[in-house]
Amino acid sequence: MKPKPKRPIALPTSRERKCVCCGADVPVEFENCRAMFHALLEREYGDPEFGEAHLFTVDAYALQHSEEHSPRSNAFHLIRLCWLIEHNCDANIRQARQRERAFYEARQEDYRGLPFLAPPQNRGGLTVRSVVVARTATEHAAKARAWGEAVWMAWGPHHAWAREHVRKWFRQGASAQAEGRAAA
Predict the structure, then answer these.
(1) Would you call 36 exposed, middle or buried from its count of C-beta atoms within 10 A (0-12, 13-18, 19+)?
(2) pLDDT band at 182 (very low <50, low <70, confident <90, very high)
(3) I need a labelling partner for 130 at 20 to 30 A (CA). Which of 13, 18, 39, 96 fits?
(4) Is residue 12 in some structural domain?
(5) Does residue 167 form part of some domain?
(6) For residue 5, is it within any domain?
(7) Contact by Cβ (8 Å): 93, 44
(8) What is the three-class DSSP state of 78?
(9) Does the residue 53 lie in any domain?
(10) Chain segment 29-44, per-residue pLDDT in tens
């Protein structure tokens, strides 16, 4: 099946502003980066084909705009980005609608104990603007994944910490599932 092209979100080059968090050029049509992010979310929720990379969109945006979220959000989004990238997990919007299935179960108890991870000065070379220009679902997914990978690389000082939490959470999740099967 041939991917259906979408009209890209208009991004003029005149009178743009820079986002103070991620450095993106913000076109006049958008109040700020958050407005571009919401345009992406509309597209991802409105068309299942564009929802294939939804969790990359959410995690990359959150980590580049950590001032807009609670201190624990950096840790959570970094762990999930590690899970997506290093374990090649499903970033589809269906995961979010189902509370990330295994990921949600693994993190539920630990969330309140997550530390504040200070954001790096450079939060990655790609931004929300890099994705908002995509015309097809395939292009959107590739750009969202690349954005997520760029953000992951920018948070390099915290990689070992994130990897350990992914191992811990999924080791616990696998143990709990095995216990549940044994009790049944």
Answers:
(1) buried
(2) very low
(3) 96
(4) no
(5) yes
(6) no
(7) yes
(8) helix
(9) yes
(10) 888 899 999 999 999 9
